[in-house]
Amino acid sequence: MGRPPCCDKLGVKKGPWTPEEDIMLVSYVQQHGPGNWRQVPTNTGLRRCSKSCRLRWTNYLRPGIRRGDFTDDEEKMIIQLQALLGNKWAAIASYLPERTDNDIKNYWNTHLKKKLKKPEMGSDNINVNNKDRFSSSTSSSSSSHCVSRGQWEKRLQTDIHMAKQALNDALSIDQKPVFVPQTTKSSSQTPAYPSSTDNIAKLLKGFMKNSAVYTKTCSDSSVHESSGEVNASESKIDLSEAFESLFGFDQSFGSSPNNSDFSQSNTSPEGSMIFQEESKVGLRFTMFENWLFDETTGGVVVDQGKEDLSNFSFDENPDFFDN
DNA sequence: AAACGCTGCAACCGCCGCAAA
DNA sequence: GTTTGCGGCGGTTGCAGCGTT
Length: 323
Hints:
about 0% strand, disordered N terminus, disordered C terminus, DNA-binding
């Protein structure tokens, strides 16, 4: 019934990406910016479908993403946001700019789901049923008709209030902003998985040893500088330089409170193109977000938020949850 | 040391929304 | 108004790595 899959063409490669493919993709995005994924396989010679390219970029190669263990703060945020938003992983990921929706989804499915099922998880567990409640009442499933709009709004208000309180707790831990990676426990440890910076640097290291593609596609002088550095010795690659070479700016974004610094630190048109998407994340403070974070930063008492909500009309604010 | 089971993650699949033709 | 096709999202799967027996 539906459209045929875009990737069932003969000759389209599937499975894990090789370092060479990653380099080709990164090089292409460096030159053209993310987007127009349809053209990527054609222009790069990658035998991958456009979707696969986009996914590889957004979930793995995109700069600014952090891999490895989730911190307690992140975990709490995910739990609360999941209770609040349901399985809207992309929406949840927008609150955790360093994490991809796929990562969050995986973490939920492999860790948090089990954790929340345990009966001893009383306080943290806003409750898993909230998800079911929320999703069932927002979805188009038949069960949604069992709950009136008024009841649904009331429930939602309660859920939001609870989520906000828990989120406030999470955010107030150590009095540190949640978006700063250095606040995380894992940042002081060796990460279980390399960051995307590490990944790309490693790719460069491995790739430049035995591939001519790299020298062909990355022919600008800055890249050659870093490649020469790597070739000169087998010592540890300078990650920041490798990354800077590849993307034309330093990796200070990694410690940036929000990703809007991406575009600020990169003045080239290409670079700004590349990070338009990322920069949007930090600036996406919708009405909901502003309301949510106003309180968590201590500016507004919680009760007032409750009162505001009680006067809030979803009919008059159809874009309340829009991101 | 080998076999087996479990876990976690990367990648794929199918559907949906939206915009262009 | 309809069709087409792209980008995006969420659910699911396959497999590598790890632990246990």
